[in-house]
Design goal:
This protein has 2 domains: 213 residues, Aldehyde Dehydrogenase, Chain A, domain 1, CATH 3.40.605; 195 residues, Aldehyde Dehydrogenase, Chain A, domain 2, CATH 3.40.309.10. The chain contains 17 helices and 25 strands. The longest helix has 28 residues. The model has no long low-confidence stretch (mean pLDDT 96). The protein is of the alpha/beta class. Helix 3 runs antiparallel to helix 7.
């Protein structure tokens, strides 16, 4: 053990403002508008935080969650199917304005739970207080932006079009029953960026929280229950293989929203008996790279690469996961990169100014240590002081150089604080890496020469979903499309794109005759149809 063990506190040193109740035992789960009580097995929720007790360190147990079975998950599915009722249920036939009112009611209740959700984010996944607060607030903003985007979409659909003697109105309608599953690194934000577009477009939902960051959904269950009609949103817990597998095998899931690994997504999609009827919106693995050109402003590149590779300990799909630095500046880059990492503060999530915190995933430090060992065995060195040091769930960032294609870290996603760097001489070396990669989410180019950058943009535009110039890879702003190629994604997520992903265009059309115009006019004036409407939502 090393000096980093000292970051773990005694119980009395934890600020009272972030302390949790002694044991958050959750037995509640939500099906068909009813808050049910689970009497079976519970899953113990371990925090990545260890507490010092004398000369020993004990991992903090913060609560437990229900270990539901396939029986309960299928009951949730039946409730969602019934609430959708082949598109005839209360929710899918409700007006857009009424659905918006339900979402706004939820958002108001959600904001009341900010403090407890932020605390649970810190304790459950080790996210810093600043980033936890940012995740909560950004999620609220995303819901507001989704509401406004739907209003805009509905306004554009409120008119009729005339083409080749045909009169028609085109609107977007829901797809059916959605299964929404989010990731543990953004268990609130990333989850809700699929959940709320699915809901607000009129789909009914079975929602299973992430494998870590589960308890933080508990404070929001009552808001779900009281804001939406019964069966519209159903929240289940338990082992994914049993609960989610049963849902997919039923063939009754119409939309699959999942943020996780491509392996997990493939297995679940294969379980669906009618894959052609399954709409999938997936955010998957990535191996985003940074390209440091010889004319780069080194200080800018270092600053962005530290943020890009180590924000939330590198546990982001958009993180920079490998760095190609030109041979002429690689030594200077590595020196400044190591110095910048040394200035990052390790500690507990609630510590002021903290940048490096414990990792929530069991076995993660061993996995990362093995990646480092493999790289060293194949000729790399740990460049930065203390790189790769481990204390319980804490892993100090390790900068590896020179990395080669013989090392696991060259192609394998680390999803953690290991920063592989290799030197390149010719642009084609970097181009070949991107072309041959199984992933295609994003990359970053750092440099000043517009001709070179323009040439690289053209090389990569057909390989990744986003190219960043002199800035780290990232998802935001949320109005920008968020997608990927190859094994990195399916479908596009952004505020507007998500609404389209969870719906389908449908139209009513007729020949333009006096009789048909009269019929359409009567339907509109007398409000004889929910679909045909010229209402304008303010």
């Amino acid at each position: 053990m090393n000096d980093f063990i000292s970051i773990f506190p005694e119980e009395k040193a934890v600020p009272s403002s972030v302390q949790l109740p002694a044991d958050l035992e959750q037995r509640e789960y939500l099906i068909n508008g009813q808050m049910l009580q689970w009497q079976g097995e519970l899953n113990k929720v371990l925090s990545p935080v260890f507490i010092k007790e004398g000369n020993q360190f004990k991992q903090k147990v913060i609560g437990s969650t229900p270990m539901l079975t396939s029986k309960e998950s299928l009951e949730a599915l039946d409730a969602a199917v019934k609430a959708y009722d082949l598109g005839h249920g209360v929710w899918p036939t409700m007006s857009v304005a009424e659905r918006i009112q339900c979402v706004e009611k939820f958002l108001s209740k959600m904001k009341e739970k900010r403090a407890v959700v932020v605390n649970l984010l810190m304790w459950e996944i080790g996210k810093s207080q600043k980033d936890s607060e940012k995740e909560f607030d950004r999620t609220c903003d995303y819901i507001v932006d989704t509401i406004n985007a739907l209003k805009d979409l509905d306004r554009r659909s409120a008119h009729f079009v005339q083409e080749q003697g045909i009169l028609g109105q085109i609107r977007r309608v829901p797809l059916g029953v959605a299964l929404c599953m989010g990731p543990y690194n953004y268990p609130l934000n990333e989850t809700f960026t699929t959940l709320f577009p699915a809901l607000i477009m009129g789909n009914t939902v079975v929602f299973k929280p992430a494998k870590f960051g589960v308890l933080l959904i508990r404070p929001l269950l009552e808001a779900f229950q009281t804001s939406f009609p019964p069966g519209v949103i159903n929240v289940i817990y338990g082992r994914g293989r049993e609960t989610v597998g049963a849902l997919m095998e039923s063939g009754k899931i119409d939309v699959f929203a999942f943020i996780g690994t491509n392996k997990g997504a493939n297995e679940l999609k294969k379980a669906h008996p009618k894959s052609h009827r399954l709409r999938a919106i997936l955010g998957l693995d990535a191996k985003n790279l940074a390209i440091i050109l010889p004319d780069t402003d080194i200080d800018v590149a270092v600053s962005e690469c530290v943020l890009g590779s180590l924000s939330f300990n590198g546990q982001r799909c958009t993180a920079l996961k490998i760095i190609f630095a030109h041979k002429d500046i690689v030594d200077v880059f590595l020196k400044k990169l190591s110095e910048a990492i040394a200035r990052l503060k390790p500690g507990m999530p609630w510590d002021a100014g903290v940048s490096l915190t414990p990792l929530p995933e069991p076995g993660k430090t061993d996995f990362l240590k093995n990646l480092v060992t493999d790289a060293i065995e194949h000729g790399a060195k740990v460049i930065n002081p203390n790189g790769g040091e481990v204390a319980h769930t804490f892993f100090y960032p390790a900068v590896l150089y020179p990395v080669t294609d013989k090392m696991r870290i060259y192609s394998e996603e680390q999803f953690g604080p290991v920063v592989p760097v290799l030197a390149f001489e010719k642009e084609q070396e970097v181009i070949d890496y991107v072309l041959n990669s199984n992933f295609g989410q994003q990359l970053s180019i750092f440099g000043k020469d517009s001709k070179t950058i323009g040439r690289l943009i053209d090389s990569f535009a057909s390989q990744v979903g986003r190219i960043n110039i002199n800035t780290q890879c990232q998802r935001g702003p949320d109005t920008f499309p968020f997608n990927g190629r190859k094994d990195s994604a399916e479908g596009t997520l952004s505020v507007a794109d998500a609404l389209r992903s969870f719906s389908i265009r449908s139209l009513v059309a007729t020949k333009i005759t006096d009789d048909n115009k009269k019929i359409i006019g009567n339907i509109i004036r007398n409000r004889e149809s929910d679909f045909l409407s010229t209402d304008y939502i303010f």
